[in-house]
Amino acid sequence: MSSLSSSKYEKALAHVRSRLPGGCPLCKGQRLTIGAVILPPYVDEDGRVVDLGGRGAAMLQVICSTCFRVELFDCAGLGI
Ligand SMILES: [Zn+2]
């Protein structure tokens, strides 16, 4: 389930369809769905969370409904 407005959802979906025309990069499944916007933590090479301050980089999940691979797209790059 996405938390995006319908216009942002459609913009993200259009980008995903244009960039992944063959479907899922792993299984080639065609059922890719727009998931949640998440804010992954920054971690150092030992896996410790690093506080860089500021907002961080919001990422949009794109989920394959066949193999459940999750791709992440940068929301700022998507313009959403
Ligand atoms: Zn897949």
Descriptive report:
The structure is a single chain. This protein has 80 residues and is an alpha+beta fold. It has one domain (6-41, 56-78). 22% of the residues lie in helices and 22% in strands. The structure holds zinc ion (ZN). Zinc ion (ZN) binds next to loops.
- The tally of beta strands, per DSSP, is 3
Q: Helicity level, as a percent range?
A: 10-25%
Largest sheet: 3 strands, antiparallel
**Could you say which small molecules are bound to this protein?**
zinc ion
Coarse structural class: alpha+beta
Number of helices: 2
Head-to-tail CA distance between termini: 16 Å
Number of domains in the coordinates? Answer: 1
- The gyration radius over C-alpha positions equals 14 Å
The run of helices and strands is HEEEH
Amount of beta strand:
15-25%
Explain briefly what this protein structure is.
With 80 residues, this protein is an alpha+beta fold. It is 22% helix and 22% strand.
Q: Which properties best describe this structure?
A:
binds zinc ion, 2 helices, single chain, alpha+beta, globular
What's the structural blueprint in terms of helices and strands?
Layout: H1 6-19, E1 32-38, E2 59-64, E3 70-74, H2 75-78
Antiparallel strand pairs: 1-2, 2-3
Bound molecules: zinc ion.
Residues 24, 26-27, 29, 64, 66-67, 69 line the site of zinc ion.
